[in-house]
Design goal:
Blueprint: E1 4-9, E2 12-17, E3 24-30, E4 40-41, E5 46-53, E6 55-60, E7 63-68, E8 72-75, E9 81-86, E10 91-98, H1 103-109, E11 111-112, H2 118-122, H3 125-134, E12 141-142
Antiparallel strand pairs: 1-2, 1-11, 2-3, 3-10, 4-12, 5-8, 5-10, 6-7, 6-9
Length: 145
């Protein structure tokens, strides 16, 4: 039985692993220069990142943190954060949200990775606009600059 789903969401490849626990678990692969999300917080969800390959930059409550392979970043609920990949190679990280439920954002706005032109479709303006409008309903609260 296959227990993963592979989606392209906003230019990032998400491999979502089904779990029986009260958390969502996914592997994410980014390409060089792919932008991260706008600064945001989750009111109900705690988030954990574990960098597997490459290097990432996180901005957490205004403080910049660089994370290389082997580094984990724990972000409590209600903490403003964003992230991006650094360097000229791809970046791979594991991402966990607790409690379970946040993966619905990626399932709603992601494009099946096997679909032709999935990357381009995932960054099309109608998808971005819709995500921004619906984000608060999915516990992603974007913070204005």
């Amino acid at each position: 039985m296959k227990n993963t789903k592979e989606l392209i969401c906003l230019g990032h490849r998400f491999i979502i692993h089904e779990t029986t626990g009260n958390y969502d678990f996914m592997e994410v692969i980014t390409t060089p220069g792919a932008p991260g999300p706008p600064p945001h917080y989750h009111g109900e969800h705690h988030e954990l990142f574990m960098v597997i390959e490459g290097e990432m930059e996180f901005v957490i409550d205004g403080k910049t943190v660089r994370a290389q392979a082997g580094t984990s970043i724990d972000i409590p609920a209600n903490t403003v954060h964003t992230f991006s990949a650094l360097g000229d190679g791809h970046c791979r990280f594991m991402n966990l949200h607790s409690p379970k439920g946040f993966k619905v954002l990626f399932e709603t706005f992601g494009i099946d990775a096997s679909e032709e032109n999935a990357f381009e479709k995932s960054v099309a303006q109608p998808i971005i606009t819709s995500l921004i409008q619906q984000a608060p309903d999915l516990d992603m609260h974007i913070v204005s600059k």
